Records
---
Amino acid sequence: MFSFIFDAIDSVIGQITSFANQIQEQVYSPIDGFVNEVLNGVWRGKGADSFVQEMREVVLPEVGNLVAAISGGGGMGGGGAFTGLIKQAVGVISELDDAISSIGNAIGDVFDSIF
């Protein structure tokens, strides 16, 4: 009965996952790559050390948290908080759909027995 809702929700979850992947590819990965370049010696000194520390302790974890909040609970790429709530809502809608179908079938059975 509500299959159009399930299709729409699957589409939204796909878009959310795609967005999270874009953050991973366009933000996290380039920053992580630059940190590795600094560690390999392209920049040296206290400024480089401070940069690496800030990136590793603040920026990269926060970007990872953003990706996790959008699509992955335990880190990059898993099924996460936001999509988990959506899937929970889908479960409720599915249960409602099953209940409505059962009631409809029961009413149909009653009418069949009468007529």
---
Amino acid sequence: MNFETISLLLSWVELGVLLAMLLRLGRTFELIANTQRELRRAVNRLGEQRAAELNNSLGGPGIAPASRYRWTPLPAADAMGADDLAHLSP
């Protein structure tokens, strides 16, 4: 075998190894994506179960899940200031 033949053969082997590595890397990323999806589903399911348990223990369907509550600031007229707190202290 001459040098050109060996060089061409090694180039094909390198390309094959590179392709195998890329395929393996693609499968690894696919596994990571599937794992993240399953973890999200499990966390959501657990949150729904806990909300249902809390709902049942607090008195039934009249209690909304915590995710429905939204924080809104008080209007300036309803906010307490330092003067309001001064007369409350003993």
